[in-house]
């Protein structure tokens, strides 16, 4: 019996030692947005916006001079407020941490005032389980179904992919009435929450909440648009309640903000209050409140 236990212990050790450690990407949090550095083709230290709201990755066309790219053609880009035609480049190699992906297609979009070189979309995230830890300022990319991933203390939610956009069920509570729907998760947006125009119009939300200002936004399609900012009394998210949130009400007639499939989109000024684990393969997402909970809303 003693020999059997020894063999079992040795076998368990071999299994554990053979597990691949997650790739770790340090990030900076700037104006509520997550930034990481990657290598593109032969160019290192390319600054990317980490964007769960982008199903494809992007190179800022103002940065293309320092990144060797071959333009292959044009495609349609659907921004938050409209649609435009942009160039794209295929067959690129991207390295982040110890992970290398080949034949990556980049859309080229002119972010005129942006201080980053590209957008790291969900096309580069899928195939891994993603952990975003705001305390350590680390993104960890685990192998799918990795038993080493610790989700103790997290709230588990169903991850819905709506037109390839990650979303969860959530709700707003206004004057004792609950307004529920699917809400997109957009870490690439630096706001709190934008309500899609059909949902805002159908529920007459501009009349149910106090208007406290206006916000000007620029979409990836190049459009600049203004939205009213209203004070939302409460949001229920991952079985937690957050109170007195400044949110924007879209009036877009085209682009993603005009969708009828989702109620709205949480930006990273909201999402940064939760450490997050995204399990694309199994269709779940996990949230845990962190030290950003009591940071002020802008």
Automatic annotation (TrEMBL):
A Pfam short name: Asp_protease_2
A GO term, aspect molecular function: aspartic-type endopeptidase activity
GO biological process, alphabetically ordered: proteolysis
Keywords in alphabetical order: Hydrolase, Protease
Keyword Glycoprotein applies: no
Superkingdom of origin: Bacteria
UniProt domain Peptidase A2: residue ranges: 46-60
Protein name as annotated: Aspartyl protease
Species this chain originates from: Chryseobacterium culicis
């Amino acid at each position: 019996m003693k020999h059997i236990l020894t063999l079992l212990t040795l076998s368990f050790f071999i299994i554990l030692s053979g597990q691949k450690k997650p790739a770790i990407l340090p990030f900076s949090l700037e104006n509520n947005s997550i930034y990481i550095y990657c290598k593109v083709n032969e160019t290192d230290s390319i600054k990317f916006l980490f964007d769960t709201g982008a199903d494809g990755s992007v190179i800022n066309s103002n940065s293309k001079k320092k990144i060797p790219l071959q333009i292959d053609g044009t495609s349609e880009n659907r921004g938050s407020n409209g649609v435009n035609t942009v160039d794209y480049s295929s067959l690129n190699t991207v390295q982040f941490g110890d992970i290398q992906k080949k034949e990556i297609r980049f859309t080229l979009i002119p972010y005129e005032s942006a201080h980053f070189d590209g957008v790291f979309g969900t096309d580069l995230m899928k195939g891994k389980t993603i952990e975003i830890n705001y305390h350590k300022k680390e993104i960890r990319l685990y192998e799918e179904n990795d038993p080493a991933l610790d989700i103790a203390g997290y709230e588990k939610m169903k991850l819905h992919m709506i037109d390839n956009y990650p979303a969860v069920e959530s709700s707003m509570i206004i004057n004792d009435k609950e307004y529920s729907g699917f809400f997109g998760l957009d870490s690439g947006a630096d706001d709190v929450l934008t309500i899609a125009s059909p949902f805002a119009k159908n529920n007459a939300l501009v009349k149910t909440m106090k208007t406290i200002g206006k916000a000007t936004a620029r979409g990836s399609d190049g459009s600049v648009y203004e939205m009213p900012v209203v004070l939302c009394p409460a949001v229920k998210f991952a079985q937690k309640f957050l109170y007195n949130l400044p949110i924007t009400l879209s009036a877009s007639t085209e682009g993603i903000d005009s969708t009828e499939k989702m109620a709205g989109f949480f930006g990273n000024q909201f999402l940064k209050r939760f450490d997050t684990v995204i399990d694309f393969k199994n269709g779940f997402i996990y949230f845990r409140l962190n030290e950003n909970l009591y940071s002020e809303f802008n």
